[in-house]
UniProtKB/TrEMBL annotation, chain A:
Superkingdom of the organism of origin: Bacteria
One Pfam match: Fer4_9
Family matches, as SUPFAM superfamilies: alpha-helical ferredoxin, Respiratory nitrate reductase 1 gamma chain
Domain 4Fe-4S ferredoxin-type: 298-328, 376-406
Transmembrane domains' residue ranges: 6-23, 68-86, 106-130, 151-173, 209-225
InterPro entries assigned to the protein according to its UniProt record, in alphabetical order: 4Fe4S_Fe-S-bd, 4Fe4S_Fe_S_CS, HdrC_iron-sulfur_subunit, Helical_ferredxn, NarG-like_sf
Protein's UniProt name: Fe-S oxidoreductase
Keyword list, A-Z: 4Fe-4S, Iron, Iron-sulfur, Membrane, Metal-binding, Oxidoreductase, Transmembrane, Transmembrane helix
Length: 463, 294
């Protein structure tokens, strides 16, 4: 062990890399918490079990086999290869060389697994790139998949290949330098040594380049995540943990309305005192439903940061399949764009630099005056096309719920703006006046029972 | 065949006699007013009468559950309806509710408890499955469905909304028919296009209507039309294998929801296939297989 300039440099790089990431993560946490309160505590065991199955176990990915296998390879590779990051950190800080070698045969197993997984990751990433850029899987297209989201998707794949290349450069150079004395097993790099120069100096430099590229690449990637859809590798876990446990058909109850309705039906009903600000003054009344991102629940904003824009939701949406404007993925992407526009965009690789039109289409229906999530990003036409069928919710591999946000915005349109389509207003007044959504007279409600007969099988059998 | 007239028991009459029924049959607005779905209501009541279930209906005291208002975002109207119905149901001390409408089912089961209405709520597909399991319904003595092709269209509010996929299929199994699954079925099932209050409005502009898309899939499944099935979008890779062979005529699209009924029947009509493909609710199929229609 010997300290050198490299160790000090490494310490600075590592502190800067992790520090910047935590600074960004705190800003995003604040962005998510602008959402309305929603108690998601309790049911810890059920939530942990769900996280284990859906997030760690990728349960919902396996509805589509090919992408599930390719994704699993990259996912397992990511987790296992990151064990090596522990070694890189220790080696980098203390000047050790392959610190984990004390594990003996286990170390060989680890390095061998890393090498095999690394090679598989490169193959899987190539297949994923092919699916996205050559084969043209339908769900990777759509009006919301504009310049930035498309570039982002490819950048992630390129970074993964660069990281794996750095790993192999490091291992192959190290192997050629030390030969059989190098601890560990290198089933892939042993075939790569022939490609490298023979000079020990060159090999040493190559090994350092590979080593530095790997760890610096990881730190840069870590700081790219908060700007990218790839943030899902972290956010998927809390998102699944905090996902709804109630049946998908159960829509949330608006409690403030419950108090109003109870007071109307029973004048003696005591409406609870309105919430107060910390200084004792009455809190500003919250609107019914959602007009902007801060009217949504914090879990809806957590959803937006967990989305990797895979488009499974949109690909099964009956409205989208039949050519309507609605795309559940767009609602989720709009939510993230809007929360970063309204609150500060804390990001170092700021995707806003690409300009608005790179992120979402400038639809003519969008309201330039009221630049809010509703109307400024999401048009009523999209919202009214939803059949509330829950196909998007069911399809999402990380339990994002676009339907909740859609219904919240519908509530705002109806309850705050009375802006429902006219035919729905007719339906509302039918329910109010006739107790049925159609214009039938309530006195005809029991007519179905007229002249109703049944075969008397018991009597038939007796005969 | 001997037949007898049914005097559908009204909850108010039972209460006046101090009786409580074992189960309240929630008819729903479509079941009460829609001419096509009234036939489902009548079929289900025939089954209840045949089996001798102790049931009652609310009659004119029933009112819309508020489902379409809630899905459309009118929470105020929904809660007004819900509280009114809960007052009625609680006033009669109702413990158990059965309904043939997945929307009423979902609303009463999942959304009434928060407003003070807690009941055991079951959908008629589950209820029929129980009657079959108990041996009370055998699907014998009536129309035979043996060898006929039937495909079941999942209702969103029964399936994804409440995870009921097997009960309707178990009910159909007793018919001894040739049951075919559509590619987009169960958790991957495609909506008929009527949910979320779409039933009461024109669809937004698009390439086609959702019910046409779904009817095309159902017809292609019954016909064994591999080309149409291959080109379907949005099917997950767990989709069932394509069925082979051609349609023998007299095929059935089975539904378990009044809105699916309307949408699928319109879709079949749009494709001019009413002559050889019919849309039936589970209760209708069971009532005719059991020979209860009189």
């Amino acid at each position: 062990m010997h300290f050198s300039f490299q160790n000090i440099l490494f310490l600075l790089v590592a502190v800067a890399g992790f520090g910047l990431f935590f600074w960004q993560a705190r800003k995003i946490r604040a962005n998510i918490l602008v959402g309305r309160d929603r108690d998601m505590s309790g049911n810890v065991n059920e939530r942990l079990w769900k996280t284990l199955l859906v997030a760690f176990g990728q349960q919902k990915m396996f509805k589509r086999l090919t992408p599930a296998v390719l994704h699993l390879i990259v996912y397992v590779g990511f987790i296992v290869i990151n064990i090596e990051v522990i070694e890189i950190l220790v080696d980098g800080l203390f000047g050790t060389h392959r610190f984990l070698q004390f594990l003996g045969p286990l170390y060989s197993a680890l390095t061998a697994t890393n090498e095999v997984l690394g090679a598989l990751v490169i193959l899987a990433v190539a297949a994923l790139w092919w699916r996205r850029n050559v084969k043209g899987v339908r769900r990777f297209t759509g009006p919301e998949m504009r310049a930035w989201p498309r570039l982002d998707a490819d950048v992630i794949l390129y970074i993964e290949v660069i990281l794996m290349t750095a790993l192999f450069t490091m291992n192959a150079a190290d192997l050629k330098l030390h030969g059989a004395d190098l601890p560990g097993a290198y089933p892939v790099s042993q075939f790569l040594t022939g490609l490298l120069p023979d000079s020990p100096t060159a090999l040493h430099v190559l090994e350092r380049i590979g080593w530095w590229a790997h760890i610096v690449g990881i730190l840069l990637f870590l700081n790219y995540l908060p700007s990218s859809k790839h943030f899902h590798i972290i956010m998927a876990f809390p998102n699944v943990y905090y996902s709804r446990l109630v049946p998908q058909g159960q829509f949330s109850n608006v409690e403030s309305i419950t108090h109003e309705v109870k007071a109307m039906m029973d004048p003696s009903y005591q409406v609870p005192a309105p919430a107060t600000e910390p200084d004792g003054s009455a809190a500003a009344p919250t609107p019914f439903g959602a007009k902007d991102v801060d009217d949504l629940a914090w879990t809806n904003l957590l959803n937006a940061y967990s989305c990797t824009e895979c488009g499974r939701c949109t690909s099964v949406c009956p409205a989208n399949l039949t050519g309507k404007l609605l795309s559940p993925r767009k609602i989720i992407m709009d939510t993230r764009d809007r929360v970063e526009e309204k609150y500060n965009s804390p990001l170092i690789f700021n995707p806003n630099l690409y300009g608005k039109e790179a992120k979402h289409s400038e639809q003519e229906q969008l309201d330039k005056e009221n630049h809010t999530l509703l109307r400024g990003y999401v048009t009523p036409e999209e919202l009214w096309a939803c059949t509330t069928c829950n196909a998007c919710v069911e399809a999402c591999p990380v339990n994002i719920n676009p339907l909740e946000s859609i219904v919240e915005m519908r509530r705002f349109l109806v309850l705050e703006e009375s802006a429902a389509p006219n035919s729905l207003n007719v339906m509302f007044s039918n329910i109010e006046n006739n107790g049925a959504p159609w214009a039938f007279s309530p006195s005809d409600r029991f007519n179905w029972a007229d002249d109703l007969f049944v075969t008397d099988k018991a009597a038939v059998a007796q005969r | 065949m001997e037949k007898r007239q049914i005097n559908v028991p009204m909850m108010a009459d039972l209460a006046a006699r101090g009786e409580t029924p074992e189960v309240l049959f929630w008819v729903g607005c479509a079941g009460a007013f829609d001419d096509r779905y009234k036939r489902v209501t009548r079929a289900f009541v025939r089954i209840l009468e045949h089996v001798g279930v102790n049931y009652a209906v609310l009659g004119m005291e029933e009112s819309c559950t508020g489902d379409p208002a809630k899905r459309a975002g009118n929470e105020f109207l929904f809660q007004m309806q819900a509280m009114q119905n809960i007052t009625t149901l609680n006033g009669y001390g109702i413990k158990k509710v059965v309904t043939a409408c997945p929307h009423c089912f979902n609303t009463i089961k999942n959304e009434y408890p928060a407003l003070g209405g807690e009941y055991e709520v079951i959908h008629h597909s589950t209820f029929l499955q129980q009657l079959i399991n108990e041996g009370k319904v055998t699907a014998e003595g009536g129309e035979s469905f043996k060898g006929r092709r039937i495909t079941f269209h999942d209702s969103c509010y029964l399936g994804r909304a409440n995870n009921i996929y097997e009960a309707p299929r178990a009910v159909l199994e007793v018919l001894d028919a040739d049951l075919l699954e559509m590619k987009r079925c169960k958790t991957n099932g495609l909506c008929c296009g009527a949910g979320g209050a779409q039933m009461w409005k024109e669809p937004e502009p698009g390439k086609k209507d959702v019910n046409i898309e779904r009817a095309e899939e159902a017809l292609a499944t019954l016909d064994g039309n591999a080309e149409v099935l291959r080109n379907l979008q949005g099917a997950e890779s767990t989709a069932p294998a394509l069925p082979a062979g051609s349609n023998h005529g007299g095929s059935v699209i089975a539904v378990a929801c009044p809105f699916c009924m309307t949408m699928m029947a319109d879709g079949v009509k749009n494709k001019e296939r009413e002559s050889d493909v019919q849309v039936f609710d589970l209760a209708e199929l069971i009532a005719s297989a059991e020979g209860l229609n009189a």
